[in-house]
Amino acid sequence: MTILSVYQNPPAYQFDEGKGEGTNNWLVHLEGGGWCNSVRSCSGRSNDSTGLGSSNKMVPRGFYGILSSSKKDNPNFYKWNRILVRYCDGSSFTGDADKGSKVYLRGARVFDAIMEDLLERGMKDATNALLCGCSAGGLASIMHCDKFQDLIATTARVKCLSDGGYFLHGKDVYGGYHFEYATFDQVVGVHGSAKNLPQTCTSKIKPSLCFYPQNVIQHIRTPLFILNSVFDKWQLEYVFALTYLPIVGRAWVKCQNNTADCSFSQLKRLEGLRSEFLNTILTRLGNPSSKGWFIDSCYTHCQSLSGESWHGPNVTLNHKVCKTIQFRRPMGIGSTTDVWCTWLININRHVFVCVKNESPNSPNNNCI
User: Fold this and answer.
1) Residue 135 annotated as catalytic
2) Whether 146 is catalytic
3) For residues 15 and 27, what is the distance between their CA atoms, to the nearest angstrom?
4) Active-site choice (54, 91, 135, 297)
């Protein structure tokens, strides 16, 4: 069987071989790059210079952050086998549909084929294995987490990490679900993704809602770690404020770029978004003992691929260290720890800070 990316070309991955005590440890990172929601947009990706639709257009990516070979920048994984799976299908590796003679939407087959190749390279005998990803790849690391574990030897420690892939299913600032209807509904339909989504979810709700981690995460049995910002830059623009729309999003453009330009009602909406995001993390986990999270409030999207954000110095704003909204690490990486702050927005160096050091249920909610 020939496995193809969107436009008739084989898929690809980049490989940096492990060394020393890391030779039996494997880190597989799924590249992100959004989605295509129509035959036309998927076909258009084939000519994109980013290579998101054709391996013929791909150029090698640098390995930084969690993929780095530098002990200083990546002390936990720098000696591991590190793989970057290039993204060329536009469905978070869930699609399986052919659209004519030139457009192949086979993301699920791409994932399976690359995993098979890595298993033959030695991953089947791994001591430790981590499936991770950023953005659409971070979503894919959730969707494929249990499948990944099932591929590896039962004696291995297998875990998953989603970076910037926890896309919230919530109402946008206009009270609707524009992103759901315009993107995920269409992606699932065009790519035929439903059959490759968790049946524990699709048996209960419409398949496109199973693209939202809050509807899937409770069913995942493999240890899973979520790295995300409640003020994720991409989600604020495309899911919440819709600032890319020429008319309806205009009222939020200035607020998004500079919180000093936000009205009181806009700031309240952002605080409501934060609360909703945290609530889904805390109430949808299923078995919390196998889940961990690092939820911050930085205005960014994907934090594991940058040396500065992955293992850089603490970010200090107004002489205060920006920690987390909540940090929980129950997966054999030290003891379980909870650290709480209320919220902090840093947008293009313009800062609005409201911090509390108590738990979220504390009555002492003083802004400083």
Assistant:
1) yes
2) no
3) 10
4) 135
What is the number of alpha carbons within 13 Å of residue 49 lying toward its C-beta? 0
Contact 325, 295 (CB under 8 A): yes
CA 260-261-267 angle, 5° bins = 80
**Among residues 232, 297, 304, 309, which one is catalytic?**
232
Give average pLDDT by consecutive 10-residue segment, the chain, 368 residues: 48 92 96 90 74 67 91 92 92 86 82 95 96 97 96 92 95 89 93 93 95 94 91 90 72 76 86 88 79 82 84 50 40 39 36 33 29
| Residue 82 CB burial class (10 angstroms; 0-12, 13-18, ≥19) | buried
For residue 150, list its beta bridge partners: none
**232 is annotated as an active-site residue:** yes
- 3-state helix, strand, coil split of the chain in percent (to 5) is 35, 15, 50
Q: Which residues contact 245 (CB under 8 A, 6 or more apart)?
A: none
Query: 29, 144, 191, 301: which is the annotated catalytic residue?
Result: 301
